[in-house]
Design a protein that fits this description.
It contains 5 helices and 20 strands. The protein is mainly beta. The strands form 4 sheets. The protein has a 6-stranded antiparallel beta sheet with strand order 13-12-15-10-11-14, with no helix packed on it. Strands 1-2-3-8-9 form a 5-stranded antiparallel beta sheet, with no helix packed on it. It has a 5-stranded parallel beta sheet with strand order 19-18-17-16-20, covered by helices on one side. It has 3 domains: about 80 residues, Rieske Iron-sulfur Protein (3-layer Sandwich), CATH 2.102.10; about 110 residues, Beta Barrel (Elongation Factor Tu (Ef-tu), domain 3); about 110 residues, Nucleotide-binding domain of ferredoxin-NADP reductase (FNR) module (Rossmann fold), CATH 3.40.50.
């Protein structure tokens, strides 16, 4: 009933409801979840990441946390062909070419970060659309050379670097997919085509309300971008992050986060590990572990947030 296809560099979700075809962007506007992998009920798709619901006929958001509508496209059927009319691309969605500067592998895990230059190798311009992205946004990366993958050579990743840094970085787990296998072979100097930025999962502008981040595993990437940005810009914004991982080895960016808490008086980070129900006695958990144990839950949140903060915060998941 649903299928993701690549058209002119765009990820499109084609939906068949009772013999009628619809087409919308396959990337959720909230945090980039793959809508084609979601659940279809009638004319509504539920995003598999954070359960937003979107009407496939109009792209309208039926249920948050997404708040921006999905682009919807005109569909025509000619014989056995499905024709989709795409609008002209705006400057912000133009494709640029970036050079891979560094590949950083996290020891003991399957997590890898890829750092790219900010300068477009195909033009003399100093500024590109990605030079002025907002912390928390994502972009599409075309690495080429991905054979026999029905989704093609393009995937989207959250930009884990901050706009205040002089590079573009994304961080991901290397799995057994054809795309990830190809990605893992990239070396310094490789050229990658990038389009973006996109996404509305960004910091709110009313700094009188605190930001509470509920993070788990690789999902910490947009929060790394936001925290680094808030710290560098010295924003008067209180940030509390609960970060859950299987064990201490899997805590991404921990040294950076710990360093930033020493210079950003508005930043508090609570780590918790949840590898096993007997995690208190796991050999993988150091004896000097000072964090929490178990998954993030109501009790853990109430332990660190008083009623005033709890009722005057915006939660990010």
């Amino acid at each position: 009933q649903m299928k993701e296809v690549q058209l002119d560099g765009e990820s499109i979700c084609i939906v068949n409801v009772e013999g009628k075809y619809y087409a919308i962007d396959s990337i959720c506007t909230h945090e980039g979840g793959p809508l084609a992998d979601g659940v279809l009920e009638g004319h509504e798709i539920e995003c598999p990441w954070h359960n937003s619901k979107v009407d496939v006929r109009t792209g309208e958001v039926i249920r948050p946390p997404a708040n921006e509508p999905e682009p919807a496209y005109e569909v025509k059927i000619e014989g056995n062909n499905i024709l989709i009319k795409l609008p002209g691309k705006s400057k912000s969605s133009a494709q640029i070419e970036l050079e891979l500067l560094e590949v950083i592998r996290v020891e003991g895990t399957d997590i890898v970060s890829f750092k790219f230059s900010k300068q477009n190798n195909q033009a003399d311009e100093d500024k590109t659309p990605l030079s002025e992205y907002t912390a928390g946004q994502f972009a599409f990366f075309d690495i080429g050379g991905v054979n026999n993958d029905p989704k093609g050579p393009i995937r989207h990743f959250t930009i884990s670097s901050s706009p205040t840094e002089n590079f573009i970085m994304f961080t991901t787990r290397i799995r057994d997919s054809l795309y990830k296998k190809r990605l893992s072979t990239l070396e310094k100097g490789a050229k990658v085509k990038v389009r973006g930025p996109e996404g509305q999962f960004v910091l709110h502008e009313d700094y009188s309300k605190a930001a509470v981040f509920l993070s788990g595993g690789i999902g910490v990437t947009p929060f790394r971008s936001m925290i680094k940005y808030a710290t560098d810009r010295q924003l008067p914004l209180k940030i509390v992050m609960f970060d859950s991982n299987r064990n201490p080895t899997n805590i991404l960016f921990k040294k950076e986060f710990d360093d930033w808490t020493t210079i950003n008086k508005n930043l508090i980070i609570i780590y918790t590990v949840s590898e096993d129900k007997h995690y208190e006695h796991q050999s993988t958990t150091p004896n000097d572990w000072k964090g929490e144990y178990g998954r993030i839950n109501k009790g853990m949140i109430l332990k660190y947030l008083d009623n005033i903060l709890l009722n005057n915060s915006i939660f990010y998941i």
